[in-house]
Sequence to fold (246 residues):
Amino acid sequence: MAKKTIVSTENNIEITEAKTVVKPAMHSLEWTDYVLSLLSDDEKIKGNPTTDGLRRIFEIALDCTVVTSSTKVAQCPDHNNEKRATVVHSIGYILNSPTKETEKQNTINIDGAADVYWGNCDKIYRNHPVAVAETRAEGRALRRALRLRKVVAAEEIAENIEDHVDGDSIGKITPNQINFIDVLAKRLDINISKTLEKLALSNDNIYNIKYDDAVIIVKTLSDFQQDHSKMSSDLIGYDETWKHRS
Fold:
């Protein structure tokens, strides 16, 4: 159904029609689309709702009142757990217009949990795992209470993660370079640690090698592959542990 709205100005009168949105049942296929339609454009990132946006529309969509919203840190990050943080967020709310099935129910409680570490968090936030986990846990609790289908909160998506627990990979060797070096080293039976020493490159931690230095290593091994005479005998002997040096 649509209703007419009259907008008057000094010079004219404009008549427009505004559509009345019918709220679908929570268990209907249209429910998720309805909830997402309540979000503004700046409350979505690549189509995924932000936790802030879900928090804003929560009471509107469910016609409820939030009475509690709390966070509990279940696991703090340290070196023994790969700097992993685990957080549980709890939401308690009361329906403003309960149905016959829920009229005797008081507070409804919903939990959401999230764990964050260097391997599932964007590099820019990797040093703040508790804060990221808190936001993700709240987003999951909101999604669960809203009963959204096939929807992930924007903060739960990581597109630029580290490849190593001690990583700071900007401008450093890439996983593809490491794999390529390893393949060539096996094929040529070359000791990478000794090759790095010969090239005057540190081999204390392979993940700290600069990208440009990794290019030099790849070129050196490629030259060896094309001309075996360039390999000195002291470099012979592949050692699979070279990637695990720390």
